[in-house]
Design a protein that fits this description.
The complex is a heterodimer of chains A (about 290) and B (about 170). Chain A is of the alpha+beta class. Chain A has 7 helices and 18 strands. In chain B, helix 1 packs across helix 2, helix 2 packs across helix 4 and helix 3 crosses helix 4. Chain B is globular. The chains are: A alpha+beta (about 290), B mainly alpha (about 170). At the A-B interface, helix 1 and helix 2 of A face helix 2, helix 3, helix 5, helix 6 and helix 8 of B.
Chain lengths: ~290, ~170
Amino acid sequence: MGNNINIDDLFKDRINQINDLPDNVEWNSKKGWSEYEKQYFTVKVKVRRIYYYLTAAASVLIMVALFVIFNRNDKIISVHNQTEEKMEFSLPDGNSVWLNKNSSIEYPSRIAKKQVKILVNGEVYIEISNLRSQQYTVKAHNAIVIAEALASFNIKSYPDEDNTDISVASGAIKIVEEKYKQGLALLVTQGNYCSVHRSQKLVYASINKNDNYLAWKTGKLIFNNQPLATVMDILDKYYDAKIELENDAIAYCLFSGSFEQKPIEVILNQIQSDLNLKIINTGKKIIFSGKGCL
Amino acid sequence: MTEELINQIKGNKRKAQQEFYNKYSVQMFRLAYRYVDNEQDAGSIVNTGFYKIFNNINRFIYKNDISLIGWMKKIITNEALLFLRQKFTYNELDDISSAVLFSEEMPDNNLMLEDYYRLIRELPNDLRTVFNLFAIEGYSHKEIAELLNIKEASSRVYLTRARKMLQENLTKNK
């Protein structure tokens, strides 16, 4: 018996000592990840039936009503963009939707005359250019956007952020916090934006000073005499690039420029030459060094 | 460090998922490859496992790296078993055939670490599964019986046969 235990322990001990790749294997984590991306980061469209729950007291009348509803074939369509690119498509009534990466939207397959309920997560731009329904309500976390007239708006509502930001590109929309009454709806018009806090339930609106809120959709970045600290934040967001400033003085340098569908290198080189800085690329992150603007 | 990375994954950040994958996938591959006979299958077990890891990480409370790795190993092991059960059936074995006595001699081990890994991989599929689960992963016969849908007695027989074969091969490799 002692032998048996020894052989188990012997193997366990040896096996636990090795954690690198086995011999003669072509697999590696890079290949594995690229397979993973192919398999899981694709656009997923799911169609799901709407389920109606019946109580024990369900009458014949309800049964008939249900039959009609099922015959109309109501479904919820849910689109999840797991690619690295934005995607554009149309709602069943022809209105356009742009879906940013890591974002999802749910909408009914049939557009009802009275109201269309849409659910979003992440970042989405919706353009209501024809009113096939009297009211479009878009829910993003605790924010509810109501469009009853032609309007285009951007909703940014990622799960790891504290706010849902809604910017109006054209027309006007109403915004309500989920728990407030409809009477407290805030009207937000073209050029303005509104922020709804997740836990403090605040709804506030002001003029939209962010020129780049639609950059994810248009690919256009505009900098208008902005301090480099702000520019870095924007670049970090849109390019997922780790950029650092060697000293605080650099953060105060002001930068202007406008870029359309350009790789980040073009912008960084422009900053470097305009502000007389130097780029140090360590491979993992990019550092700006220089005298700065104090 | 790890905790921060896990929080980023919870925010569904793809970059963070990639970093996490790079950090742990080799270790998980080594685990999966110990259960199956080719690397393609091991690779796909690792990937479905990571998909489950990322989708369940919200419910995981990070204490330390050891508990994290233990949790992930369990997921990968389950994926490996799921895969194996689709491909093979684990037959019931009766006790009599296991009445094989061990030699008292414990082989010298001047073997390389990789040789031990290879010896496990060279076991027939059913013996390999049970030996891995019992000796390396630390499952009980009762748990193995449930996982493979066999009787506890059969699990014991598989283990005995696996040990015997390993011991013979150790001596051969001396």
